Amino acid sequence: MISVKHNKTLLIIFTILYTVIMGILLIWIKELSPETYAHVENVYLEPSGQSISLTGENLDHNFSAILASTSPEEESLVTTKFTWSEVYDIQIKENIAWAANNKKGIVAFNIDNPSSPYIVSSLELPNNPVIWRITINDNYLFTSSTKNGLYIIDISKPETPKLLSWLDLPGTTNQIVTQNNLALVAAGESGLQIVDIKNKNRPKLLSSTFPRQNLDCYFFTVCVKKNLAFISGREINSRQAVTYCIDFSDPKAPVEIGKIHHTGSKTVWDSLIIKDVLYCGTTNGITKINISEGLSSKREKFLHDFSILRLHSTENSLFVASKGQRIHRLDLKNNFNIKTFHIPRRACRCITTKKNFAFIGSGIQGITIVTLKYPDNGSQDILSLKSNLKPDEFLYSHKNNLVIFGHKKVCLAYFHPESNKYKIVREIKFKERIIETAHEKNKVFFSVLNKGIYTIRLNNGEWNIEESFLPINESIKSLKIFNNKLYICVKEKIIIADISSIKPKIINEISIKNTPNLISFRDNYAFISTTNSGHEKHIGIDIYKVSDNTFQPISNIIYPKTINQTNTSNGILFRDNILLDSGSEGLITIDISSIQKPEILDSVEFSKTCETSQIIGDIVYVNHNRGGLSFMDISNPRKIKKLGYLQSNRKSKIVNNKIYSFDSIGNMSCAPAPVALPQKSVGHSSLTLDLPKDIQSGSYDLFFSNEKRYIRIKKALTLTGNKKWILNAINIKKAYAFSETI
To answer: CA 623, CA 320: separation in Å to the nearest integer?
Structure first.
């Protein structure tokens, strides 16, 4: 008996060990098995011109294709050049672009062909100066070198530039302008320096004392009109932007004749004069002053809320480089019309132009060259708000009406079918900024900081805006409409307003343990995203049963600690029984078929912060806070698949198969929304995809994705005006070399 019992025990142990070993072996074999991801080798346009065929491997295995209109920003980029140091200024003389290359001196590029510039020479300077700004006068280049003073270089032979002289100067040499035989220097804490440069081999300092004693300023920029110098920077103690006007008729004894402060700005970074107008680029937009009437004349301000880094002018345009990788082009003849160019993934430290090209100093990223011809691909700006967009939900559509929310104003645009154009028919400005918005059919609600909530009613290009029906000083986190009621999220409570009648009224207030950041509804359930009141950390989603204007707790979704620490919910979306929580760091899919026991299915992280999301069919479109649009496939909610990413500086929203995009100052463009290409015939090594017929002409990108990565083929296809598809020259291997992992 003992022997039999012992044998049974050994058999059980052997069976368990065998099962464990075989399980480990199967997992090991699976890990070593070759991947079966779809891979494209070639793309062909079918003779019909209405479909494309792909060849490759595993094309029948979870493969997706997206057609997306080429972004205007990508269209404008010509080329980039690395320069082994930071580029902070560029000046052009004839066919040579001279770059201030920080500690590496100066570099000369031949730009006969702007798409293929090449270095013709470089010159490192003694004393290891930091080259910040350069000025060219005739055959001489003058450099400002922060703590090392002024350098003068002979550039008559670009292949062999020659250092002629160096002059040590007080203070920090930030910018130099030349006039006749004088160089005027904005010298940081040492004010204005005036140098005699008649003899380029022996420059001589004429004056280095600013008229005012105990100067409390730091100066970055100087520009000149006749015998007047305008030197700008900031006052150190008051931290205000300031401009002085100096008469240097006697360069040995300059005289201060005026001074202004730029209200609301801390610093003037750059300035220039066009005819009799002084433009000062500040930390809060551009100040425009007619100096023929003196510094005390009326001032204009534009490009508010932008920190201006550098200015450049041509005969008809003013170019402005601002923080956030943006270049603004202002038409000086056409009512100051503004167009904005975004420099994808490149900094904008300075700008100069030649013909139809802009040469941009991108700091440590070298030189960026863009074309100034706005792309003719159907994505041109079709109206302008002249305001940046602040609310997350910034655009609503009702019939032919668009309601667009700027930073401190609301615009109504109406689409005229006969002209096929939008036109702003009315706008209302506020002193305070617009915080949150919500809409239902022809009614739009929005909250204004420290004012309350307003209502707009739309009707065929006409609208009525009603005064604030809810004066509230609390910080409004979210607005949502459900069953003729407006739900208002504020700190630790939700206010409910009945909006069924013309005059809305408050009917209840519900206390919430944590701060409700966002509320959304499905059937008769409320889903509330909350944060910890003390630490502002995302906790999860609380679910309530809605009944008789009250909330009954049902369940909650608690996220792992990693999500709590980094993620902030900014959208709760639904597709069937799937809840999609769109957070600042990624997306989460949750099964809510059992409302008492919701189940987290999958999550995906973003490398760029998410601002808003919307869901159309099985595709989620994600706006990123610095521009750009990602799109995800959630047809399998347990496996979110990234389909692609459109680089852009624009905020976008998709309405009626169109993508409305707004740049940083409210210029709106309209282009076809990304389209999933239907599969016509599917095989392991071949695949045919139908191309859309009723779509706007222009240039299009192709995105191919499998479970692991996606690739983007830029400008793969072009649809002509007579609706003929053209397959452009494409390089699949190059696309895979720069593929992005999901």
So the answer is: 25
Distances (CA, A) of 443 to 161, 395, 502: 67, 13, 11
User: In this predicted model, which residue has the larger pLDDT, 305 or 31?
Assistant: 305
Of 723, 721, 671, whose CA–CA distance to 701 is shortest? 671
Residue 733: φ, ψ to 5°: -60, -40
**CB 57: neighbour CB atoms within 10 A?**
14
Which is it for strands 651-655 and 658-662: parallel, antiparallel or unpaired? Answer: antiparallel
Specify whether the CB–CB gap between 647 and 628 falls below 8 A: yes
Terminal-residue alpha carbon distance, the chain: 61
Return d(Cα 174, Cα 145) in angstroms, integer.
7
626 touches 345 (CB < 8 A): no
Tell me the per-residue pLDDT of 709-737, one tens digit each, with 9 for 90 and over.
888 898 899 999 888 999 998 888 777 76
CB-based contacts of 51, cutoff 8 Å, min separation 6: 45, 680, 688, 689, 690, 691
Q: Cα(505)–Cα(499) distance, rounded to whole angstroms? A: 7
Q: What is the CATH number of domain 96-309?
A: 2.130.10.10
pLDDT > 90: percent of the chain: 37
Q: Please give the C-alpha separations between residue 610 and each of 441, 583, 623, in angstroms, as whole numbers.
A: 27, 7, 6
Handedness of CA 207, 208, 214, 217 (dihedral sign): positive
Instruction: Give domain limits for the chain.
Output: 35-70+606-742, 96-309
User: CA-to-CA distance for 650 and 624, rounded, in angstroms?
Assistant: 9
Whole-structure pTM over 0.90, yes or no? no
**Residue in 444, 436, 435, 438 with CA at minimum distance from that of residue 463:** 444
Alpha helices (H) along 296-376: none
pLDDT for 627 equals: 73
Structure confidence at residue 394 as a pLDDT band (50, 70, 90): confident
What is the three-class DSSP state of 21?
helix
Q: Which tokens sit at 311?
A: 């200015």
Beta bridge partners of 612: 623
Distance CA 437, CA 119 (A): 52
Q: How far apart are CA 237 and CA 609, in angstroms?
A: 36
Q: Which two tokens stand for residue 554?
A: 């049902």
Helices (H) then strands (E): counts for the chain = 4, 66
pLDDT digits (tens, 9 = 90+) for 428-474: 888 888 989 998 888 889 988 888 888 888 776 567 776 666 777 77
- Our measurement of the distance from residue 579's CA atom to the centroid of its chain's CA atoms, rounded to an integer in Å, reads 28
Nearest Cα neighbor of 217 from 174, 184, 250 is 174
Characterize the bridge pairing of strands 285-290 and 299-302: antiparallel
pLDDT higher than threshold 90 for residue 208 = no
Q: Classify residue 183 as exposed, middle or buried by CB count within 10 Å of its CB (0-12, 13-18, 19+).
A: buried
CA 206 vs. chain centroid, Å, equals 46
DSSP for 562-574, written as a single string: HHHHH--EEEEEE
401 Cβ contact partners less than 8 Å away, ≥ 6 residues apart: 412, 413, 414, 415, 458, 460, 461, 463
**Above 50 in pLDDT, residue 377?**
no
411: which 2 tokens?
């615009």
